[in-house]
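INFO  loader      accepted 1 record
INFO  loader      residues=648
INFO  predictor   begin
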Amino acid sequence: MRPDASAILGRTLALAALVFLTGCPPAAPTRPEPRRTLAVIGEPQYIPADGASCLRLFIRLLEAHSSFRAPRLKSDLGRIQDLTQVSSGQWVANLCAGNETGKVLLQAGGDTIADPPSLYFVPPADYPASEPVPVAGFTVTVDPLVQTVTIASSDILDGYSIELSVYLYDPLPFLFDGDTVEVGVVIEGTNTPWDLLEVRAEIETISRRGVTLDNPDGRDPEPSGVPYYYYGGFLATSRAAALGENPSSWTAGWVIHFSGDHPFTLTGTIRVRLPVPADDRAGFRIRPFLSMAASDAIAIAWDTDHESQTLVVYGRDPGCEMIATGTEERNRINENLGWTTPRYFDSFFHRVELIGLQPDTVYYYRVLSVKAPTSPQTFVTAAVPGRAFSFGVIGDTRTGDAYHAALIRRMAGKSLNFYLHVGDLVWNSGSESEWLKFFHIEAPLLKNHPIFPAVGNHDTARMDLFYRRYFHPDSPFPDSAELRGRMYSFDWGNSHLVSIDTDLPVTPDSPQYQWLRQDLETATRNPDRKFTFVLEHHPVYSLFAHGRYPDGQTYLEPLYETYDVDAVFSGHVHLYERSNVLGRPYITTGGGGAPTDSGESDPSFNPYYVGSFFGYEYLIVSVREHYFDIDAFDLKGNLFDQVHYSKP
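INFO  predictor   done
INFO  writer      dumping tokens
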């Protein structure tokens, strides 16, 4: 159809009138801005002076694009500040939220954020200042003619009550070599209110020309302002935080180049601050592992090589919407270093307890405050009475790393809620390298299944620094240096589980026996309890001489009979052995990696003997409403023994 001539004329006249009135033709229709793809990375920043916490955002375009307009970022928590372009297609910004806590959801206002990062706000720690604060001044006097060096210091009012002593490093305070002298300085804090400080000794003025400075590590000489600092640490053979009687100390050193024989002075200032956690530098020494789970709580712990935040994000889906913070213990593990090595912490042990959880529920969690954050991992809280569950049992893992690792891989492939370890986790519990190896091997199991260990005779050296710190069980004797953390009990579903330490006395007058009797008696009065399991290192009965434990037979077995213990799991003897003690299974499962036993046996040692297996093995215990099954598997995953136990 041909257009109507009058309509065309009308539109032409209207356009002419618009041009006449405005002086310009109408604007062309606005085209929508092209959608771009952005990458966003967030790093925590702390501004404690005004009580704020911020995330530093790094934004960049992921592909070549003609539009370099600034991104229009919005956040559901906090506010975007200081958006600045640093190069073509790259920006930085601060996302600040004061003292708010929570997960951050970002929107890009017309752009797309590729793989949106997991960003979380956590209120800042109680740091005294965001910048180093001066606490002491010092003056170094050098006399090249007589080859002497002296130092004097003075306090600066800082408000922190920090007392620092500054003196020359003994036994080698200074060393002249021609027109060079190397000076070592020690800064020692005798009343520091925190157990870790970042200390900076900075030379600010030099009294005459012709003097330059260099650091002992070989960096290029600089005329002034040469900072040289370490993290300070307590000398520690157990938990460092508990050894407050040892002062913190740091070292500073300079190589001073001079000309002529005239004396000269260098003046400077000691500045301190608590170090901001270096999440981008921290790496796992021990990957996150689970322990002490209950129906409403669980503990997650890990160890890093640098100071970092102690926090876990978690939730009932992989998005992990909630945040929990915890405690950090700083330790100096390697005490074999020589006097020339600075004293500093080399282990940062983190522990977070998640509370208020729902029973028998799958949760996801992540640890993000390291340079390589974990992917979402899962755990299941303790079952309520009436719900079926399963657990694993292994023991005496010790030195056979290849066998130990193979068993753990097989256990990790089973459907378990948790697992028991009957003791002798390592060969020498005073050696951190053995614990690091243990956690590396067990990581495939520990990341998703809480461990409940018993103390073995090889686990007791330096317990405060290692065993108690790692597993931290709730203790009936929290104030006893000897008993703390060596026995405990917990409930899971219809069962009560008890762990005792058979290296401690079990005579009726002993604290452990009296606690155990009271614990078992209380369990029998619980109407929800159907079964009771006991975990101990030494077997009550064994056919083999290595496993003889007369006190177990004299004192423990009658107690177990009186208070209706249904099964006992033990180790110490490096094999599998099953006994039927008055209708109840007593099982030794000590084939977790230690050299297998094939030693002498005597039938009179164990009148309840049923059978044994010489090899590496583990157990799977499946608990139902009125019965439980115990399945024993060898290294290749073959089922070689089975027990069915039922109760009306």
